[in-house]
Design goal:
The complex is a heterotrimer of chains A (about 220), B (about 375) and C (about 400). Helices cover about 65% and strands about 10% of the residues of chain B. Chain B is built from 16 helices and five strands. In chain B, strands 2-1-3-4 form a four-stranded mixed beta sheet, sandwiched between helices. Chain C contains 15 helices and five strands. A four-stranded mixed beta sheet of chain C has the order 2-1-3-4, sandwiched between helices. The chains are: A alpha/beta (about 220), B alpha/beta (about 375), C alpha/beta (about 400). Chains in contact: A-B, B-C. Chains B and C meet through helix 1, helix 3, strand 4, helix 5 and helix 6 of B and helix 2, helix 4, strand 4, helix 6 and helix 7 of C.
Chain lengths: ~220, ~375, ~400
């Protein structure tokens, strides 16, 4: 499980967030909401070990983020908001490329299976010719190569069509329920959040969000 | 390591055309430049004006001999034209075979047989003058010989005419064309014939072109340091820095194999030496080039700026390294230039290379510096 | 009309680009100047050998006769360069070590029995071994020794002739050998005096009535070419696919962008040239004069447009940026070489001269030197103008043609 205790972060004098604490159990899906610039992405990248918090501590399966950074990373998948792929390479080559650098070895068939799990079947096409939805799916698939326990997704469904959105959502749900993964993701789509999440974390003080969130009847944590 | 190589191969599969081009560029470029300039150099002739003031056999013989010299293109002019054309530099220099040439020679007088016009721009004047002097000298020398023979035969029963002796001397010279100088470089296995000697320092030229292509091949250091990719590198089995260093190693191996191929090709086409000693030097040079290119790449984020800077760097290496222009004149005055010159150790076959030490230290600092930023 | 509006827009854009990055302008200004000055320094320091640092050669005398010593003397004294050549006698191993230590430029070996073989009519070779790290100096030494060898060859035939006749005159061997040695010395002295054959007249080359004037013109031409290359590429914008698409939708063609770039390059180079010329003309150390400003500007303009057009054509034809830079740099280099700014064209092979005279760099540099150095009144712009027009038309044709093929 992931436990976060009194996390604070500020850039210079500007405080991003303060005193965030929560924990995530295997099988949980957490939605992260808030207005633009509230610090969702910062929180995600802190959880992904890419940035360090100012105060507070984080532990994943009892592994402390500060002292066991490298160990921790083996269990994390981070799906960035931007597409972090080789545009010139095909889907297959991208998968193969990142597999070689990954902690887990996987065969070609397994990689192909991973892609078809996220409903991505353009195995031999170059990334630059793929549609936005396809790129997002590949962006996700690449992050999952090493079978991580904790999935951190920064707007994985932004700007893609309804069908792909559903497909990604269903897959995430399946990962949580069947494989016991912990998933934290940000989104601006309230329906999707209501549908998928067990718990919602709201960052920022905008009363607008508070109001909408109360209507969902979900477990809400506000910071 | 094998895995890194495999990821590299995935990239190369996409870029094989440009990769191949830049890998082959220094070698093929060097061979082409040397062949073209040698061809041009062989065909190059110095335009020299010749004025023939008399039509005696000796004078026209001299004229024809000059004409047959491959180095010179004879332009027939009058004295006034000759002077003007040297002034406007349409001729390198001009020589006038003066009236009374034959008569003076026959009398054993060799002062001022030829009149010449030169200017301070007559680059080829000295060798052309030396050649003409040696030709005239042959004629005057023979006359001198004839007079000496006449002297020593004085009072003897045997007497020969001047003409007879001159004919005999010519015969002897033709029969016994005995003395010639040969030229070879101290490192050359075979001595090359004079025409094939190129003014280029083959490896120097190659080193300059190779510096350029190495820098351009190392554009991966910038392409693969895009900030967005760091969110992937963080979750790799390798640390980012070890990923980059392993790639550096792979590039070093590949480029060194290409370098060895180059050494073989230069051996075949340009008669360059092929020794184990040289291979080691080449390897040290390769390591220097690659570590330098790697460090330079780390300084840049924008690929176009990096490309342009690569060309500027290559230009300055070409100028100061002594590989293309002879820089002995400068380095003998300012010895510190030798230390600044990244090609110095390689071109002077020295084992100690300050550049590689600096580069390795810098890379070590880069590797260990603080926590891995971004990752 | 639209086209002109687009071009003006891009000119403004490029101007802004330069203004934003104004701090790199001095760099662009100085970089070619530094490069050219460095080259001049290096070449000058090589071709003006200093007497404190002569070209050192080794002489390995395996024969050890009076004659070889005299020949050594002959080499030291033979040419004008003799002042700058220092010959040292050494053993063969010494010479080899000195070569590999880069102490001498070349060494020469008098083989065993050198003199005897010569007198007796046996073929002899005089090997010159060059230092591969000093190829230019090695070749220079070889040239000098070559002319010495020619002298010896002629003298040797003469001495052989005397020997022949002396034999016929039934001289005693000692008497004959003395005679030969005496004659050998005589011929060496005779060779040393051979300079008196030529009555040398040094005329003042119009171009070099002040050499600075001549070299400055060449250097300015090279700097101009380098500026054109550097600034044109400095303005290169790496437009993303999206931006390109957007431009395409607005009806902007590649040609319009290239023309705008050419224009801004020309203006910048013009300003740079004015600054540099003011510095040079005002500097008391430079003896450089220039009149006929309009003519000079026109010729430089034609040259610049032609060169930039070809840069543009290369830009249209090549996809990869480094490859384009390579092609453009190569073109600039060839331009400089065939213009005659480095090596006067008269030294090129005849067939090459024929071709070169049709090339715009030659044409431009020729008229520049005619005006600046020879104060010529008449100028024939026509060939240069025709070439410039042809270059611009080719650029337009290639660029529009490519646009048409594009889907």
């Amino acid at each position: 499980m992931l436990s976060v205790e009194s996390l604070s972060k500020s850039y210079g004098k500007k405080e991003i967030f303060k005193d965030i604490s929560f924990s995530v159990q295997p099988g949980n899906i957490i939605g992260l909401v808030g207005e633009n610039g509230a610090g969702k992405s910062t929180l995600l990248s802190i959880l992904a070990t890419l940035q360090s918090p100012e105060k507070g501590s984080i532990a994943l399966f009892e592994l402390d983020y500060k002292s066991k950074k490298r160990e921790v990373r083996k269990h994390i998948a981070f799906v960035p908001q931007d597409i972090a792929l080789w545009e010139d390479l095909t889907v297959e080559e991208n998968m193969m490329f990142f597999e070689k650098l990954s902690w887990k070895k996987k065969g070609k068939e397994e990689l192909k299976q991973l892609c078809s799990n996220v409903k991505l079947d353009r195995w031999n096409e170059r990334v630059k010719t793929l549609s936005g939805g396809m790129k997002r799916k590949l962006n996700l698939a690449v992050s999952l190569i090493h079978d991580p326990e904790l999935l951190l997704l920064d707007e994985p469904t932004a700007g893609i069509d309804l069908k792909s959105r559903k497909e990604i959502g269903n897959y995430l749900k399946k990962l949580a329920l069947e494989n016991g993964k912990m998933i934290i993701y940000t989104s601006h789509d309230m329906d999707e959040i209501t549908n998928l999440c067990d718990q919602i974390i709201c960052i920022g003080e905008d009363p607008f969000y508070q109001e909408i969130l109360t209507e969902t009847g979900k477990n809400i944590l506000s910071f | 390591m094998i895995d890194i190589l495999k990821t590299r191969l995935i990239h190369w599969k996409k870029q094989w055309m440009s990769l191949l081009f830049w890998l082959a560029f220094p070698t093929i470029g060097t061979i082409l430049i040397i062949y073209t300039t040698t061809a041009i150099q062989q065909d190059s002739q110095v335009p020299v004006g010749i004025v023939l003031e008399e039509n005696t056999p000796l004078a026209s013989e001299l004229y024809h001999t000059i004409q047959q010299t491959p180095l010179i293109r004879v332009v027939d002019v009058t004295e006034a034209e000759a002077k003007r054309k040297v002034e406007t530099h349409e001729l390198d220099s001009a020589f006038i075979i003066q009236e009374g040439y034959e008569e003076k020679i026959q009398k054993g007088n060799r002062n001022w047989l030829i009149k010449s016009y030169t200017s301070d721009l007559s680059f080829a004047y000295t060798p052309v003058k030396e050649m003409i002097i040696s030709l005239v000298q042959e004629d005057t020398g023979r006359t001198k010989t004839a007079h000496i023979v006449r002297q020593i035969s004085e009072g003897s029963s045997k007497q020969w005419s001047i003409e007879e002796i001159i004919v005999k001397a010519k015969e002897i010279q033709q029969e016994e064309n005995l003395l010639r100088s040969t030229f070879s470089f101290a490192d050359g296995e075979q001595s090359r014939s004079e025409n094939e000697v190129t003014i280029w320092n083959t490896w120097g030229l190659w080193a300059v072109l190779s510096a350029l292509s190495t820098l351009l091949i190392f554009d991966w250091v910038i392409k693969e340091r895009k900030p967005i990719l760091f969110s992937r590198y963080a979750f790799m089995r390798f640390s980012v820095k070890s990923y980059f260093l392993q790639n550096l190693l792979i590039y070093t191996i590949i480029l060194f194999i290409i370098d060895l191929t180059t050494a073989y090709l230069f051996h075949v086409f340009l008669n360059e030496e092929l020794t184990l000693n040289w291979a080691v030097l080449l390897f040290i040079h390769r390591l220097t080039m690659n570590t330098t290119a790697f460090l330079i790449g780390l300084l840049f984020r924008q690929i176009l700026v990096y490309y342009s800077v690569s060309f500027v760097i290559a230009l300055f290496i070409a100028i100061i390294s002594g590989a293309v222009l002879p820089n002995d004149g400068l380095t003998s005055r300012f010895t510190w230039l030798e230390i600044l010159n990244p090609l110095h150790s390689f071109l002077n076959e020295e084992w100690m290379n300050p550049w590689i030490i600096v580069c390795v230290v810098l890379i070590a600092i880069w590797k260990t510096r603080g926590v891995e930023s971004h990752a | 009309m639209n086209s002109i509006k687009h071009i003006l827009l891009f000119i403004k854009n490029n101007g802004l680009q330069l203004k934003r990055k104004w701090f790199s302008l001095p760099l662009l200004f100085f970089f070619p100047i530094i490069a050219v000055v460095l080259v001049i320094l290096i070449v000058a320091s090589f071709f003006l050998p200093n007497e404190n640092n002569p070209i050192r050669i080794g002489i390995v005398d395996l024969d050890q006769s009076t004659e070889t010593q005299m020949v050594t003397q002959l080499i030291e004294d033979s040419t004008q360069l003799g002042n700058y050549v220092e010959a040292d006698m050494m053993e063969e191993e010494e010479a080899q070590t000195a070569t590999s230590n880069n102490e001498i430029s070349a060494y020469l070996i008098f083989p065993k029995q050198f003199t005897n073989d010569l007198y007796n009519g046996n073929s002899v070779e005089l090997p010159v071994i060059g230092n591969p790290r000093k190829p230019m100096e090695s070749l220079l030494i070889h040239e000098i020794i070559g002319s010495v060898v020619r002298h010896i060859r002629a003298s040797q035939a003469n001495i052989s002739t005397i020997n022949e006749y002396a034999k016929e005159l039934e001289m005693s061997d000692t008497q004959r050998n003395d005679l030969i040695l005496e004659q050998f010395q005589e011929f060496v002295l005779y060779t040393l005096g051979s300079n008196q054959i030529v009555n040398e007249n040094e005329v003042t080359n119009q171009a070099t009535s002040s050499p600075i004037q001549y070299f400055t013109t060449g250097a300015l031409f090279i700097i101009l070419t380098t500026w054109l290359l550097a600034i044109y590429n400095y303005l290169h914008a790496n437009n993303s696919k999206q931006i390109k698409q957007r431009m395409y939708l607005y009806g902007v063609t590649e040609l319009q962008q290239i023309i705008a770039k050419m224009f801004v390059t020309l203006i910048t180079v013009f300003l740079f040239s004015v600054i540099l010329l003011v510095i040079i003309l005002e500097s008391p150390h430079f003896d450089f004069e220039m009149n006929e400003w309009i003519k000079i500007t026109l010729i430089s303009l034609f040259y610049s447009i032609s060169l930039l057009s070809i840069f543009g054509i290369l830009e249209v034809l090549t996809v990869s940026y480094p490859l384009r830079l390579l092609c453009q740099s190569f073109l600039a280099l060839v331009s400089i070489l065939i213009s005659g700014a480095v090596i006067p064209v008269i030294y090129f092979p005849f067939w090459l001269q024929d071709i070169i005279t049709y090339a715009f760099p030659y044409e431009a540099f020729y008229w520049l030197t005619e005006i600046i150095l020879h104060n010529r009144i008449y100028t024939d712009y026509l060939p240069l103008l025709m070439i410039t027009l042809a270059a611009v038309c080719t650029l337009a044709g290639v660029s529009l043609g490519k646009e048409r093929i594009k889907p």
